[in-house]
Amino acid sequence: MRANWNLVVDKILTHANDEDLSVLFQLLLTEEERSAVSGRLQVFQTLLAGEMSQRQIATEHQVSIATITRCSNYLKNMPPSQRAKVRKLILD
């Protein structure tokens, strides 16, 4: 079975309320996966805010330095226009 990410995105887009999305994500993701996604979002938000060191982020959000490094490298390698879009999506 080949993964179809567009199917996932379509399902998410068709469920606009919090309760439906919560049920959908509980179905699709384990507790560990939901925690990892949440942690990654917090890391991206904190990196974009630029107010903490990687060690402070690791302590504050209880994520590994490796996760922070991957997120940081992803942001550094992204085109400026995409980085601006990401900033708007997760900081506004």
UniProtKB/TrEMBL annotation:
It holds the Pfam family Trp_repressor. It is found in: Cytoplasm. Keywords: Cytoplasm, DNA-binding, Repressor, Transcription, Transcription regulation. Gene3D superfamilies: TrpR-like. The keyword Transmembrane helix does not apply. PANTHER family: TRP OPERON REPRESSOR (PTHR38025:SF1). This is Trp operon repressor.
